[in-house]
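User: Hey, my collaborator sent me this sequence without any context and asked if I could get a structure. I don't really work with proteins. Can you help?
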Amino acid sequence: MFKRRTCLAVFAAVVMIFILAKQLNEEKAPLTINGDPVSEEELAFHDGSLERTVRSREIWSWAAEGGMADEFSYDDLIQSLENENRERKKLQSEGGVLYGPVEYTPLQYYRRLTGERERMLRTRILEETDSSELIRYYETHQENYMDVDTIEAKYTIRQEGRTIYEGNVILEAESMRGLSESDEELAEHLLQLEEGGQYRWTGKNGEDKLLHCVRREKGRVIPFEEVAGAVADQYAAERFEQELTKRIADCKVSDRRQK
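Assistant: No problem. I've predicted the 3D structure and written it out in structure-token form, which is a compact way to encode the shape of the chain:
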């Protein structure tokens, strides 16, 4: 019984020392986020922006709470970076396939890990989302999943006072990509036209170009099955930002730095 009480007392003392040490560390640190000190090196990753630092720190903390990764630690980051670069150099020397740089800088590696955590969180959101919720999202955001309008216009090109081209040009969903690749400027001007409207501009060689829209028909709503991947990505991105915004609003920042 005496040994048990002694062990409990030692344990309580250790806990108290840890709490006091943490409080002392927080008091000494000029900048903390939820009680954890922020180093100058971490701030430098974000060009000194506290707002961006808080955002990234909350992404790391959120991922850690979900058991997907560890909490942020600059020392652990540098140790992991050294291991990563060592393995990458070894892989290159052995003739292996290497994606990305042979050697990451601390900033490059930090951004890579932050991006990985964000992707893991979005994936977790989708794993916890019922398919019916994605369909509801699609139905309430159908303006995002529509084909381009069908636009027909009379296209006239004149140079030095004479007509060198005159004809009709049609932009529709099936031809949008091809037209954009062959004449991006023309495609952009067509998309800006309302039925009955005109657009005139000067070409690279001084040509006088004129579009007169004779027909514009609303594009169709693309069926869910054809855009399911895009719906999932946009839903996860929106939910991610909503939750992250809430976490940032709830986090406690103490900034004792000299202004």
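In plain terms: The chain is about 55% helix and 15% strand. You can pass these tokens on to your collaborator as they are.
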